[in-house]
Amino acid sequence: MSEPLLCVENLQVAYPSTQSLAKPAWAVDDVSFLLDSGERLGLVGESGCGKSTLGRAIMQLLPQRSRVTGQVRFAGKSVFDLTPAQLRQFRGEAVALVFQDPMTRLDPLMSIGEHCLETLRAHQPQLSRRESKAKVLETLDAVKIAANRFSQYPHEFSGGMRQRVAIALALLLNPKLIVADEPTTSLDVTVEAQILEELTRLCR
Fold it and tell me: What is the rounded average pLDDT for all residues in the chain?
């Protein structure tokens, strides 16, 4: 039997506390699941139940001194054992994260194209600028962003279009897994449906 793409076993996460002797208040408590390549999994729960924390635990984006027990394995390897260099490669190239509010993650002084080019420079420095731009335009087209918007800035995009930019950034490095943390928060119902449809289409 082949190894699952993602294996989460008995995961518990507690955020840092000033009371070192206090019993941990688990934000994530004993969560286990398997995810195979090509599968989609949705986590449903009220606000504050730990959905975002689970995603951050998978990506190793928790605050320092967070308490974590259990195991998270990606393609058979524990993400908790990755070196800093391996972790940098893991984020983006293996697993990518789409945040709730892309505006807080986009530099208002950088064009959308430069955001994408910066990501490629960090992970694929061997590409020429022409090759990088071609890849960026191809990815933007995949999420239905026109090429003539390459040089535009985040404030020139609607909420739905900014979320498409966030998805494009996640797709740039062809990750094997995308973690989408409530990607339709604050969007109206029509745009929400479009974004969910886009994510579903891209996962096929």
Answer: 89
Rounded to two decimals, what is the model's pTM? Answer: 0.82
Q: Which amino acid is at 169?
A: L
Closest by CA position to 165, among listed 114, 92, 109, 203:
114
* Amino acid at position 123, single letter: H
Cα(196)–Cα(47) distance, rounded to whole angstroms? Answer: 19
C-alpha torsion angle, residues 100, 121, 197, 189 (rounded to 10): 30
Tell me how far apart the alpha carbons of residues 100 and 152 are, in angstroms, rounded to a whole number: 21
Identity of the amino acid at 201: R
* pLDDT tens-digit map of 29-75: 999 999 998 898 989 888 888 999 999 999 999 998 899 999 999 99
Phi-psi region of 178 (alpha: psi -120 to 50; beta: other; left: phi over 0): beta
189: tokens are 């119902």
The pair of three-digit structure tokens given for residue 49, joined into one six-digit string:
């139940």
C-alpha dihedral sign at 89, 91, 93, 95: positive
- CA nearest 162: which of 84, 83, 100, 91? 100
* Residue pair 143/164 in contact by the 8 Å Cβ criterion: yes
One-letter amino acid at 16 equals P
Strand partners, 131: none
No. of helices (H) and no. of strands (E), the chain = 6, 6
Domains, the chain, in order of start with CATH, read: 1-81 (no CATH), 83-204 (3.40.50.300)
